[in-house]
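Hi P.,

Sorry for the delay on this. The queue was packed all week, but I finally got your sequence through. Input first:
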Amino acid sequence: MQHKPLSGIRVLELGQLIAGPFAGNMLAYFGAETIKVEPPGRGDPLRGWRVVHNGTSYWWRSIARNKKCITLNLKDPRGREIARRLALRSDVLLENFRPGTLEDWGLDPQQLRRGNPGLVSARISGYGQTGPYAKQPGFASACEAYGGFRYVNGHPGEAPVRPNLSLGDTLAALHAVIGVLMALLTRERDKRGGQEVDVAIYESVFNILEGVVAEYSGAGVVREPSGTTLTGIVPTNTYRCADGRYVVVGGNGDSIFKRLMHAAGRGDLAEDARVAYNPGRVVHQREIDAAIGAWTGTRSSRAVLAALQDAEVPCGPIYSVADMFEDPHFAARQLFESVQVDGDNLQLPAILPKLSVTPGATDWAGPALGAHNDEVLQGLLGMTRDELDGLRDEGIV
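Then the structure:
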């Protein structure tokens, strides 16, 4: 197996569903030995979410790839003691329970660091580990709204829109991975031991608000939803073509705008001093969008994209996953990786970014419940077969 950037790092993943497990997914993809703890019986609920085949969701096969899956009943003191022993042998503890849960279980990361000073604890929650809302339940849907993302997403005068994805969870996972990597680097460079990475879902959303906060603080401007456009930047919009498909066009650079207008047969606008620069284009946005829409509406999406690509204007089709599978660029960039599941070939998405010397890779799909109990509990903790059988009989594993 190829050496990966996180080879030699052990991660104990205690979370479930999306935010914590996706962070664990990324760490495992890039080489960390990630031990995923699930409750005996049904395991992580994500095993049964959305499209299920032979009792296991396809999503699980992706998000639990490269992980070693074990079962522990963390509601029982004996299960928690096993988790504690594993944490003492790990570099990273990853969890996304409600704040206070680990403390109630006797798994307080600060206490664990007394026995394992280098332990990095990454804790993902809806509202963070401190503050008046810390213990509120925080799913991505509510946190995306509270963190400001939902307010600007949608059409003016209509209900705010959510993408059909758990964006807040994924953003939180990315922040957790960044925090873990920085904490590991600090531990290695400064010999300072481990530390806590406190990630809130709403803050991960808040972190992508660009100039929204500064604009309000400095000018009292509240950025409002703007449908398919981007406030204050023109033209960047979605346009319908004659075949009923939509294309996205970003012609907001000054020279790009000229090329776009010439390609659309509107040389008059290309050379119009009123719209030569972005502030003027913002004032005349409706006129510009109408001109572009009139042009795209008489041509197929393929013809529009070809003309704009020839003019070196940023543009693109709006793809479904079916479109991605047919596109040669996705294949050339190796964005699909094949694994065997129950004797069948399954395509999983590659995890980015790409590294030239020590890339990540999918080694195996998300495994069966408790598939690595023997390897981890006997091999790492030194349990005997009789001990493990006894714990299994009592529902601890």
